[in-house]
Amino acid sequence: MPPESFEEFKKRNPHLDSWWPYQDLLQAESPRGQVLISMGFLEEQLKQILLAFLIDGSGSTNLIAKGNAPLGTLSARIEACFALGLITEHEHHDLNQLRKIRNDFAHDIHTTFKTQSVVDRCKTLRLKAHDYDSEELGEVRVDPNGQFTTSAVALIMNLINRAHYVSKDRRKTKSWQI
Question: Which domains does the chain have, with CATH numbers?
């Protein structure tokens, strides 16, 4: 059987449709742009996970997507997803670290992947690529930019289809009569 073509792979995996434009954008961006695009993508994924889990209706949308929505910030979405059991402890940890890195880049124009706070946060990421030794390549060391990117991509791939699975356990209105 011949190997599957890329187009066949894409057809067989429609849940990855949002991944391809992200990957293209990521390759063309500066490190600051990579951080902002990655975090925007993750923030949207968390939004979709929450919307897929909560009762379908305007009340849920108002909590998440309306102006001044209580769950309208990245921080609130991370905490809500964790509190509701929709993301793991490792995902929660890395999302918070990546959020802090995003804030460093967004609020200080001098921030780079050499800024000590960014370096320190990247070291704590759990879903990042780690340094290793290779017979072919020798010592392979993953710099903070690589640590950020691999953690962000790991999270995106973990969460890319999560809304679909979460929707199978969507909350429904119950009658609470005693």
Answer: 6-167 (1.20.120)
Identify the pLDDT of residue 135: 85
Concatenated DSSP letters for the chain? -PPPPHHHHHHH-GGGTTHHHHHHHHHHS-HHHHHHHHHHHHHHHHHHHHHHHSPSSHHHHHHHTSTT-TT-SHHHHHHHHHHTTSS-HHHHHHHHHHHHHHHHHHH-TT--TTSHHHHHHHHH-SSS---EEETTTEEE---HHHHHHHHHHHHHHHHTTHHHHHHTT---------
- pLDDT averaged over the chain? 92
Higher per-residue pLDDT: 10 or 52: 52
